[in-house]
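thread: overnight batch results

M.L. [08:02]
morning all. the overnight job finished for the chain we discussed friday. pasting input first so we're all looking at the same thing
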Amino acid sequence: MPDRVSDKTAVIIGAGPAGLTAAYQLLKETGIRPVILEETGYIGGISRTAEYNGNRMDIGGHRFFSK
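M.L. [08:03]
and the structure it wrote out:
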């Protein structure tokens, strides 16, 4: 991690896997402060666990790795 946080800010649209990774890498590698904007009330994009009729289901690409 850089010695200090930069005075620069990067705006990242979406808190899916790509947005979260971009924010992490920006801060870790450059010290640039990420600001993540997400439309929904949750993070993870389409890779998440949803509940329907009392059942929990994995949706999105990560479900192939969680079986």
